[in-house]
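This part of the workshop introduces the protein records we will be handling. To make this concrete, we reproduce a full record directly below:
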Amino acid sequence: MMAFPVERVRDTKILVIGDIMLDRYWFGEVERISPEAPVPVVRVARREDRLGGAANVARNIVALGAQAVLMGLVGADEAGERVVALAGQEGIDARMVVTPSIHTTLKMRVLGRQQQLLRVDFEELPENGCLDALMGAAEAALADADIVVLSDYAKGCLARVQEVIALCRSAGVPVLVDPKGHDYARYRGATIITPNRLEMSQAVGAWKDEDDLERRAQALRAELELEALLITRSEQGMTLFTDQGRHHIDAQAHEVFDVSGAGDTVLATLAVSRGAGLDWQTSVAWANRAGGIVVGKLGTSVVTAGELS
């Protein structure tokens, strides 16, 4: 495989729109069981906040050396302020719509001896007024984007995803979508969608074999007017479907430690590679390599251009 195009990547500008989250980690030691209930008592020794969701996609894009503009919704709260601060520290051009009507999506994880014991989620669906503001800001930001990434975690930010895709098509900007749910008609007109194995089966039903999968995938691609469709299949690797047919690449992970955020890394690497002018097959190969690296790390993490090379 050719060398990762670091020079071209530096000039690539990627607009990321989607559900923004704060991933909060509390690390500690477990030495006893609570006398109040049969649960472990965690004595917290360290706390760490990381960007999650669409913000983690942007974080991975910057780590690979490209430029990222991040747009989404956050609340007027401590978690929202933390997201903005972390984005600035990572070198992300954060253009968040801040609204007092919702709380920032927060996923809090409690770990004992590097083992996740509990996750607590805080989330709310946004109102139409927030989405109006986001749509206006997104349209303005499209002028400077080489490629657009839509990161859908079903938290409501992309409730009007069809309008966003239409804006991208009108501007002639390729749009990559990480989908959610089973109604993929809402992603019609995107350049590529990247469902995982479970999401694909929810969209097209269970397949009997690889030939059956190819028939279903190509039918979905044609129906949605996609240039490409990429299925991420965990330990089975990735399978790309285009006009040229099926292209499969085996997984490269040596050790799977934590799959949190792996899809974000794959999506970011695919966008960066494609934005730098690589073809789909080469872009998928780099995305596959990045996914294999990131699952060996704890929590939502990034892969750098140096690690890829």
